[in-house]
Q: What sequence folds into this?
């Protein structure tokens, strides 16, 4: 069987503003926090739009010190399509990230490991290609404004 190489193609950048964490506390799976995602944009060569309504991240910190993101948002594209987005994955809760969250200061991508798997879904035929695509991303803390917590994710399609 011939060897095939896989490539990552930058598909879009997602920037999102979020509330400060709401603590649910320690439960059977770890320490749960809830963040409301209150605004954001998606920008790329084929996808451009804004957060539709609010979204949420049901973040879970396990005993290994890693955070597990579990995010759901809705995007309305500039041409009116609605795309449902679910992304999840591990984030390294290191000291740099903790300090930056407290100070609401940006981090560089290399300051921590925030990796994600993205699932996009729509019924709009103009964007049907997203229903079969595999997306991965990496993220960093990027304030959404003065005193406003936010994140930026660079998202790639496996090609």
A:
């Amino acid at each position: 069987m011939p060897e095939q190489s896989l490539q990552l193609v930058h598909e879009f950048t997602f920037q999102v503003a979020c509330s400060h964490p709401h603590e649910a506390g320690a439960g059977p799976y770890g320490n749960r926090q809830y963040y409301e995602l209150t605004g954001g944009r998606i920008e790329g060569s084929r996808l451009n739009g804004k957060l539709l309504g609010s979204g949420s991240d049901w973040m879970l910190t396990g005993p290994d010190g890693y955070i597990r993101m579990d995010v759901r948002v809705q995007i309305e594209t500039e041409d009116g399509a609605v795309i449902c987005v679910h992304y999840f994955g591990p984030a390294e809760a290191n000291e740099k990230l903790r300090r930056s969250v407290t100070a609401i200061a940006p981090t560089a991508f290399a300051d921590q490991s925030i990796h994600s798997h993205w699932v996009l879904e729509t019924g709009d035929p103009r964007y049907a290609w997203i229903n079969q695509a595999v997306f991965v991303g990496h993220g960093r803390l990027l304030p959404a404004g003065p005193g406003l917590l936010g994140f930026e994710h660079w998202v790639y399609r496996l090609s």
Observations:
- Residues 79 and 150 are 25 Å apart (CA to CA).
- The helical segments are 95-103.
- The mean pLDDT is 94.
